[in-house]
Amino acid sequence: MATSQPRPDYGFGAQNRLLHPAEFRFVFERGKKHNTGHLMLLTRRALGDAPRLGLVVAKKNIRKANQRNRVKRIIRESFRHTRERMLPHDCVVLVRPGAGELSNSSLFAELDELWSKARLCAG
Fold first, then answer.
1. Residue 35 — very low, low, confident or very high, per pLDDT cuts 50/70/90?
2. How far apart are CA 112 and CA 109, in angstroms?
3. For position 14, what pLDDT does the model report?
4. pLDDT, tens only, 2-27
5. What does the DSSP assignment read for 67-81?
6. What is the pLDDT, as a whole number, of residue 29?
7. Does residue 12 lie in a domain region?
8. Is residue 1 part of a domain?
9. Which of 20, 42, 49, 55 has the largest CB neighbor count within 10 A?
């Protein structure tokens, strides 16, 4: 019989999200800013022991709902696959104009660049 490796948890439950306005304010007030062409990442050391993510995708920046939703899905997916290596930080990703026009691979590349710039990953 083969022993199976435990599967990593790629869920995105409430413990992994910023849910309340006060949690977003906590990051906005004193968070460190990291930028790429179409995304901005604000980070602040978390009070808890796990990294958490909040998203700000304004209709003003991406007019079409399907593009906003696609961008949000990609950001969440990138976070889910990176968070096992992340230090406990609260992160807010702000989406800038033009991000909706990027391909999925370009968005993933910008997100990888953001996680690296912020030095959120251990090791």
1. very high
2. 5
3. 79
4. 566 766 666 777 788 999 999 999 99
5. HHHHHHHHHHHHHHH
6. 94
7. no
8. no
9. 42
